[in-house]
Amino acid sequence: MVYILLGTGFEEVEAIAPCDILRRGGVEVAFAGIGGHLVTGSHGIAVKADVTVEEIDRDKLDMIVLPGGLGGVSSMEKSPAARDAIRWAWENEKFVAAICAAPTLLSQLGITEGKRCVCYPGLEHEMGSAKMEDASTVRDGRLLTGRGPGAAIDFGLMLLKVLRGEQAAQQVQTGMVYQNA
C-alpha cells in the first residue's frame, strides 16, 4: 500500500499524477489527509482523502509519498502524525518519496543525510548534507525524490518501477502515450 500525504496547500499535480500512474500499474494507493478527509491544494482543487494521516495502517505501508507545495509541506511539518508516519516508514525500511519542496522536510528529519536527491530549484540550501543532483528524479536506495510539478509523471513512473518493475512502468508509460523529454 502506498500512502500519499495531503496537507492544505499541497501541489495537486504532484499528488494526482503519481497516484494515477501507480493505480494504472496495479498498486493500491490511498490519500491520507492531514486535518480531515477533504483537503484543498495550492490551486484550489479539493481532494477527498481515503483516510486521515492518523488512520494510516502501518502494517500495510510499503511506501509513503510527500507531494510538494509550500502549504502542503508546512502542513506536514506541523502534523505530529505525519512526521511520525514518515519517520516510521524510514526506520522500518519502507520506501520514502518526496517531490518539489517536500524533500526539505525529509532533510529536517535526517533522512536525506549523505543521500543523492533533488528538490525544487532554490531550496537546495535547506537540504543539509544531501548530495544534490541535476535530474528530474533521483533514487538512492529507498529514498526517491523529484524536482517539481513538471517532473510529476517521471516521479510517478519511478515509483511504479520501484514497486512493480521496469516492465510495468514501461507498459503504463506506453499506455499513457508519454514520452519524457
What does this structure look like?
By secondary structure, this protein is of the alpha/beta class. The protein has helices at residues 12-24, 70-78, 80-91, 103-108, 152-164, 166-175; strands at residues 2-6, 29-33, 38-40, 46-48, 51-52, 63-66, 95-99, 116-117, 131-132, 137-140, 143-146. Strands 5-2-1-6-7-11-10 form a 7-stranded mixed β-sheet, with helices on both faces. α1 (12-24) packs parallel to α5 (152-164) and α5 (152-164) runs antiparallel to α6 (166-175). The chain is globular. The mean pLDDT is 97. InterPro entries: Class_I_gatase-like, DJ-1, DJ-1/PfpI, Prot/Nucl_acid_deglycase. This is DJ-1/PfpI family protein. It comes from Candidatus Avoscillospira stercoripullorum. Residues 2-161 form the DJ-1/PfpI domain.
Summarize the SSE layout with pairings.
Layout: E1 2-6, H1 12-24, E2 29-33, E3 38-40, E4 46-48, E5 51-52, E6 63-66, H2 70-78, H3 80-91, E7 95-99, H4 103-108, E8 116-117, E9 131-132, E10 137-140, E11 143-146, H5 152-164, H6 166-175
Parallel strand pairs: 1-2, 1-6, 2-5, 6-7, 7-11, 8-9
Antiparallel strand pairs: 3-4, 10-11
Helix pairs in contact: 1-5, 5-6
